Amino acid sequence: MKREKIYRLFSRMPTLTTERLLLRPMSTLDAYDMYEYSCREDLTEYLLWSPHPSVSYTRDYLAYVESRYATCDFYDWAVTLQSSGKMIGTVGFTKIDAPHNSAEIGYVINPEYHRLGLGFEAAERIVAFGFEKLELHRIEAKFMKGNDSSLHVMEKLGMTFEGYHRDSMLVKGSYRTIGYCSILKEEYEKNKTV
User: Fold this and answer.
1) Cα–Cα distance list, 67 to 6, 26, 48, 73, 126 (Å)
2) Count of C-beta atoms within a 10 Å radius of residue 145
3) Residue-wise pLDDT tens for the chain (194 aa)?
4) Fewer Cβ close by (within 10 Å): the C or N end of the chain?
């Protein structure tokens, strides 16, 4: 995949839809909705970042995100409910490796909306975008050991668990074991026809 294709697709962050969700660019107007979940320690236990200390901190972060969209090097969408417009999380590509036609996805959903299949629905749409629009060969995802709900989403996406890297990341002062899952384009296409 050529870098030019990435810039072309993300020069204006595309809006994507699912049955219940609208995936759109994040904005500082999302500060209260994002803070509602980003301030929670139970949510950030398995994430690389710490709870947001205030709404103004969240608003500053979203202003930074808006500036990153302008440079076409940030690939995360706001996950919003079509029914209300409420932002309930984020989903997107944490990195895109253009020379090797691969990418890594990540997702965060407000715990108030867990167990409704919304994280899977959002991630499934991003995987489809990756294979169909970016023409990726491989999409992977990582999770911290113990985060069984994230692993469940990955398995539901048709990803294969590849194993753990023991104590491979220093996160908030502790070494964490990281699990890896992936799906290849041929597997995605086979799953689509089943």
Assistant:
1) 17, 11, 21, 10, 22
2) 15
3) 577 888 888 888 999 999 999 999 999 999 999 999 999 999 999 999 999 999 999 999 999 999 999 888 899 999 999 999 999 999 999 999 999 999 999 999 999 999 999 999 999 999 999 999 999 999 999 999 999 999 999 999 999 999 999 999 999 999 999 999 999 999 999 988 76
4) C
Q: What is the token pair recorded at 156?
A: 């539901």
Distant-in-sequence, close-in-space partners of 192: CB < 8 Å, separation ≥ 6: none
Distance CA 79, CA 45 (A): 20
3-state secondary structure 130-164: HHHCCCCCEEEEEEECCCHHHHHHHHHCCCEEEEE
pTM of the complete model beyond 0.85: yes
